[in-house]
Amino acid sequence: MAKILKGAPVAAALDQGTAQMLQQLGAKGVVPKLLMLRVGEREDDLYYQRAAQKRLDKLGMEYQLLELPEDSGDESLLQAIASANADLSIHGILLFLPLPKTMDQKRIVDAISPQKDLDGASSASLAGVYSGSGCGFMPCTARSCIEILRHYGCGISGKRAVVVGRSLVIGRPVAMKLLEENATVTICHTRTRDLAAEVAGADILVVAAGRPGVVTSGMLRREQWVVDVGINPGPDGIRGDLDCPDILSSPAYGITPVPGGVGSVTTAVLARQLAEAALLQTDSRRI
Question: Whole-prediction pTM value?
């Protein structure tokens, strides 16, 4: 019987550590503040926004929301980012992506200061993840995968990890972090030949292709750790990228559920990275 790797205990443990950091910041008279930038009203953006606000309220952290209409030009968003970069009271910026196709997403994202880029979206932040330099922040969802594996005692070092998905926000950052922690990593995608063979050879499997059913339960084997990042709306609710009708009967050792897995950890990671950013910025100003 597979172990269900629920996200709630992981998020609770992260919140506990974040609360300790907030005590340190409170002693210095600092309350971390997040600026949320949203263009348009995509339902998934609104869902994440509400979840993030709930988490920050629970921890006593501050946030500001700037909503722009979908037909906004690049300059209005660039001006808001420049203002937030310069504002010492704002410690983190969360830009909801993707932006409308009429906007230059790369130019806008790269305008965010790496010190405040909490979702690791800019080129400078991603370069820090890929080089292991520690500069910038890891994308929140990607870090959630690692936090889940750590919380449940999956020793990453020496294991063979397979990541299905190559996006800049999840697949590639997760692969680089697993490599940094001494896993042997293979990145697969929807055009990989004999995906089933690659999946079967994994000790750790992260499925983040954004396509429901790309991995089936028949591809899994005993003793695997499986992290399903997919969030795919359907007539029966949200489902992941893993097609496994009964995860309890899966041969894998442990699997994250959808919902209730990676997604529930992401806002806790966002709050942690906001606290980390506030500490770094506060300490750098005292040098």
Answer: 0.92
